[in-house]
Description:
The chain has about 200 residues and is an alpha/beta fold.
Amino acid sequence: MIYLASQSPRRQELLKQIGIPFQQLVCEIDEIPEVDESPEDYVCRMAKEKAQAGWTVMKARDLPEMPLLSADTSVVMGSKILGKPDNPEQACDMLLSLSGNCHAVMTAIAVTNGHKTIVRLSTTQVQMTPFDRARAEAYVATGEPSDKAGAYGIQGYGAILVESIRGSYSGVVGLPLQETADVLSEFGITPWHSL
Ligand SMILES: Cc1cn([C@H]2C[C@H](O)[C@@H](COP(=O)(O)OP(=O)(O)OP(=O)(O)O)O2)c(=O)[nH]c1=O
């Protein structure tokens, strides 16, 4: 059993997929890149801060100690970090900047047990099909982009916009499963054997 410090329904589904029992913990952090911070450093720092915040919540609620997993996903276009859009207009602009181009989806995971913390980064290249503003607006109107980095979800209607990927599909959705299983094994947690 582990804690999943995440409010993302996608992360819960993905963790279920590899048969790791977990208890969800809710925690909040400020997600703002520092000046001159690289996208890689930013997502790794976010994942680590979520793990630290989750550990603090666990302690404050007097819950039993167990390894805790957190993650952070950003879409990176050139050197620009695209988080979740603030409004439909911004979602549309984000989508149009991705149209016909290749971008990176970076997901960092962090696992801590209070003594050691391991952070691992997964980067996937995503090639988008070219599309126009009308199509972007129609997609935004579905509501799907609002809570997703880069304003799309590859696991939903957004799949229509994706031409190809090179890397980890689960990493794009928000939790790279190979890396997650690998890091959890460092904490004695083994997928499906722990069911
Ligand atoms: C690119 C992409 C992102 N996403 C999602 C994954 C993440 O949930 C979200 C990025 O936001 P995050 O800040 O990484 O995570 P979150 O706020 O949803 O959840 P948490 O409580 O763990 O902080 O974008 C998809 O679901 N599909 C996609 O194709």
